[in-house]
Write a structure and sequence with these properties.
heterodimer, A: 191 residues, alpha+beta, OB fold (Dihydrolipoamide Acetyltransferase, E2P), 30% helix, B: alpha+beta, 4 domains, 5-stranded mixed barrel, 20 strands, 36% strand, elongated
Chain lengths: 191, 428
């Protein structure tokens, strides 16, 4: 990999409650291989995600045309569920998820995908690149990490100095208080 | 196109015609030249061709014969380090390298140095009816009048055109090249005194060696192309005197092309300046080629052998040496950095020595892949604090340990709350 000079897309941190509200995606280059980025309501622009949460459910099924096997799963992060999947295009991820029993705390690195249904509704899921078992401490660290990133984005949006953030805020008519509440919920432990 | 160059060229043309007692308006010449060379218009000719076209046009109009030859520039000798792109220049210096490229269009390429700096010189071929150009020889001094500084592949070079003159200068002493510090490197020709900090495994068949060299001001990537047919191999940890290496800019990263046979081993050591950093991030990827590898045992090689024990340079090897390393990515959410974890740190991280890992792989039907998978499952998706030296977007890890919740609390200045009744209310 020494000659590798391309920039790897970092894995962004977004809570499930925010992720599920994603309605817009954008390609910043006309290159076929260029990644598609999803735009989140607080202004994250992500082509890759890091998620740590509880794999509550997994299902081995086939694609619509019945040609390929696909694993589907749900990851709960305390604010909501992420829908994740690993198809035969990600054989390693499939092998990894096959060996994990639910429920389990897992770390997922994957690519966000936005679909628009026939009725015009949006649906977001994550194509798994890697899924490994994790522990509670890692999950808590991810929550702090994601809370920090989300609060930074909210602060940037509130300042309103960066055009890209302004555009996204306009697209979603983001109510920032909702997302402050979401972060608060993520950081509150029920006793 | 540079207005200054057009102006200077127009002055030259006016002067040429003045010698034949013809007065031309400079403005019309500037207009003519601009039309031919400016990118805004369709022609975008090289300056030299534009001059020839304009001179041709006016000499036909006035029915005179004008030979375009040199000697009409300002003629002041400039230090090489001060040369500006797209200007007419005159330089004096010692020729330190001559090449005869395969191209029919090029007569000679040379590197000339004057104490202030060095630059490549391209002498274009001339037709038999055009003024003869002096052949340059290594070790002799020359004056190059009316050359033009072009930028090719981000590297400036003096083009010796039909209007340029090369004259030999006698009685000048040999120059000691001035050493450039790595931090000051710009695309062009540089002399370095540097230590080979790290050798990479070349991924391309065209590369003989690649790695990083450094001095007390910084580090830079280097490449040795097989096309230079190197006989010498550079060694890690050795300091070299590197004369006249070409530095270029590739994908926004500077790198120098070395010719190892021209380097001299120096019996000194250099403290290489590196940027040590400590990063808390998630290890989001472990790349293929991590885990147990076999290395070529030929002196100075150390390349990783493939499954058939094949070294890209030394072919099939009966003997090999085991090594273990991790090539991964540490991701802060803002930035993803490639990291290289060497043997000792890998052993500590996975809690297994190389010997133990080899033994384990021998008892597993998947062989070394079992170790690779085990490493992946153990560390991918977890948070670590990585310490190491950053060199060209890559961290050479000197220490790596799992990050704790306390570390994350400190970094984010956030903590969990225990009260279920929050004053901010609930999002859902």
């Amino acid at each position: 990999m020494e000659q590798q000079t391309f920039k790897r897309e970092p894995a962004k941190r977004i809570f499930a409650a925010e992720f599920r509200g994603i309605k817009f995606s954008e390609k910043f280059s006309t290159d076929d291989k260029a990644p598609t980025f999803v735009l989140s309501p607080t202004g994250e622009i992500a082509a890759r995600l890091l998620i740590v949460g509880v794999l509550t459910d997994k299902e081995r099924t086939t694609t619509k045309d019945k040609a390929n096997t696909i694993y589907k799963g749900r990851i709960n992060d305390g604010t909501g569920d992420f829908f994740v999947s690993a198809s035969s295009f990600q054989p390693e991820a499939m092998m990894q998820i096959a060996r994990i029993d639910t429920p389990a705390i897992v770390s997922i690195i994957g690519k966000p995908k936005l679909f628009t249904r026939e009725d015009g509704n949006h649906f977001v899921s994550v194509n798994i690149e890697s899924i490994t078992t994790a522990d509670r401490e890692t999950r808590d660290m991810w929550k702090l990490d994601t809370a920090f990133m989300t609060l930074s984005r909210i602060a940037t949006m509130e300042k309103g100095e960066i055009q890209a953030y302004k555009n996204i805020k306009e697209k979603y008519s983001t109510n920032l208080e909702t997302y402050k509440g979401m972060v608060n919920k993520a950081l509150t432990r029920s006793i | 196109m540079d207005e200054k160059l057009i102006n200077e060229s127009a002055d030259k043309i006016v002067k040429l015609f003045k010698e034949k007692e013809i007065d031309l308006s400079k403005k019309s010449i500037v207009d003519d030249l601009t039309k031919l060379v400016d990118e805004k218009f369709d022609f975008a000719l090289p300056m030299n061709d534009a001059i020839r076209a304009v001179v041709g046009k006016y000499s036909r109009q006035h029915n005179v014969k004008i030979m375009i030859s040199g000697g009409s520039g300002s003629g002041d000798t400039q230090p090489i380090k001060d040369l500006v792109a797209n200007t007419w220049v005159t330089v004096e210096g010692e020729v330190v390298e001559i090449n005869k490229p395969d191209s029919k269009k090029i007569h000679q390429t040379a590197i000339i140095t004057d104490g202030s700096g060095s630059i490549r010189v391209t002498v274009w071929n001339r037709n038999p009816d055009e003024p003869h150009v002096t052949d340059m020889v290594v070790g002799k001094w020359y004056k190059i009048s009316n050359g033009i500084v072009n930028i090719y592949n981000n590297i400036p070079a003096i083009g010796v055109q039909k209007t340029s003159i090369i004259t030999k200068i006698d009685g000048k002493a040999k120059l000691t090249p001035t050493v450039t510090k790595i931090i000051d490197i710009k695309p062009g020709i540089v002399n370095l005194q540097a230590k080979v900090v790290k050798l990479f495994e070349p991924k391309s068949d065209k590369v003989a060696q690649a790695g990083i060299i450094g001095d007390n001001t910084g580090t830079i990537r280097f490449v040795i192309w097989k096309s230079t047919k190197p006989k010498k191999q550079l060694k890690e940890g050795q300091v070299y005197d590197i004369p006249f290496a070409a530095c270029n800019l590739f994908n926004n990263t500077l790198s120098v092309n070395l010719i190892p046979d021209e380097t001299k081993d120096l019996k000194i050591d250099i403290d290489v300046k590196t940027t040590t950093l400590s990063t808390l991030g998630n290890l989001v990827n472990v790349q293929e080629g991590s885990g147990i590898v076999k290395r070529c045992v030929i002196e100075g090689c150390h390349r990783v052998l493939n499954r058939m024990n094949y070294c890209t340079i030394h072919e099939i090897q009966k003997d090999y040496k085991y090594d273990m390393r991790i090539k991964g990515v540490i991701d802060t959410g803002y930035d993803a950095k490639f990291i290289h974890i060497p043997l000792k740190q890998t052993e500590e991280l996975i809690g297994m020595t190389l010997e133990q890992a080899i033994k384990k792989s021998e008892h597993d039907s998947l062989g070394v892949d079992a170790i690779y998978m085990e490493i992946k499952n153990k560390i991918v998706g977890k948070y670590f604090i990585v310490e190491g030296n950053e060199m060209n977007d890559r961290i050479l890890v000197s220490g790596i340990k799992p990050a704790t919740l306390e570390d994350m609390k400190k970094l984010t200045e956030l903590d969990f709350k225990n009260s279920p009744q929050s004053t901010l209310g609930d999002a859902s």
